[in-house]
Amino acid sequence: MDLKARTRVWRGGKLEKEHFPAAQISDYLAEPDTVVWLDLCAPDEDGLGIISEEFGLDPLAVEDALSQHERPKLDRYEEHLFFNAYAVRLSEDSGELATHEISAFITDRALVTVRGDEDFDLDALLQQWDSSPDLAEYGVAYLLHGLIDLIVDGHFAAVQSLDAAIDDLEERLFGDEVPTRETQHRSFRLRKSLTMLRRVVLPMREVVNTLLRRDLHVVPDPMTPYFQDVYDHVLRATEWTESLRDVVTSLQETRIALQGNHLNQVMKKLTGWAAVIAVPTAVTGFYGQNVPYPGYGKQWGFVVSLGVLIATALALYAIFKKRDWL
C-alpha cells in the first residue's frame, strides 16, 4: 500500500510497536488483546478502499471521509462508528481561523484516523496518549478520548484567543475618534472567524453526548468521567461562543453608531462654520449694493459696516462654541 500512514499497536494496555507497515494490521488484529491505531493523511479513493476492505468499513462512511467540508458528526454503522470533526487554530495577527478536518473510523479494537492535510498536529495527539498510559487498558475508548480531548482543547483555545482579540478590538473601537479602515477589516475578519468557529463547536456537543450513550458500548464505565469532562469543556466552549456572538453583534452596532455620531459631529461643525461665514457674506453683500446707505461714501460708514461684520461673526462663534456646535 502506497499510503502516508502512521501506525501503533497496544497489547494488554502497553504500547508494543509503532511505525510498522499498514499491511501488518490484520496480523495484529488476529491476535488477542491488541488495539491498533492507523493514521492516513490525505488518502486517495483507491488507498482508502484497501483499508475499508481490511476493516469492513461502510462505503457511505468511506465516501464521507474522502469528502471535504462534512459537518462534525457521529454516524453509527453496523460494524463501526464514523466520527468527523475539525481542529482549529486562530491567527492572533490576522484574526483568521484555520480549520483542519479529521475523520475517524471506530471499531471494537481499532481506530483509523483520516486527516485532510498535514497541518493537523499529529505529534500533539501522540503526546496526549503518552501522557496518560494508565488509561491504555481501555483500548479504543482511550484512543478516542485523546483525539476528541485534543480537538476540544483546540476549540477552547480558539474561543479564548477570539475573546482576547475582541476585547482588543473593543479598546481600538472606543480609542479611535473614528473607526479606521484597519479596525473595520479586523472586525469583519473576527466576525467571520467566529461564525466558522460556531459551525464546528456547536455540533460537538451532540457528538460527545452520543458517545456517552450506553447502548453504543464505546465508553466503558471507568472512562465515563473522562468523556464527561470533555463534554463539560464542549459546553463551556459552546456557551462562550454564543456569548461572543452577542458581543460581536454589539460591537458591529456600536461601530455603526460611532460612525453616525462622527458624521453628525462633522455636519454640525460644517453647519456652524457656514453660519459664521454667511454673516460676513450677507453684510458685505448688502453694503456692496449700488444704492445709497447710511454712511455711503463716508469713512465712518465703512468702519460701521466692518464693525457689524466682525461683531456678528464673533457673536455667532461664541454662541456656537458655547453650545458645542464648533
Automatic annotation (TrEMBL):
It is found in: Cell membrane. It comes from the Bacteria. Keywords: Cell membrane, Membrane, Transmembrane, Transmembrane helix, Transport. This is Magnesium transporter CorA family protein. The keyword Ion transport does not apply. The keyword Membrane applies. Belongs to the CorA metal ion transporter (MIT) (TC 1.A.35) family.
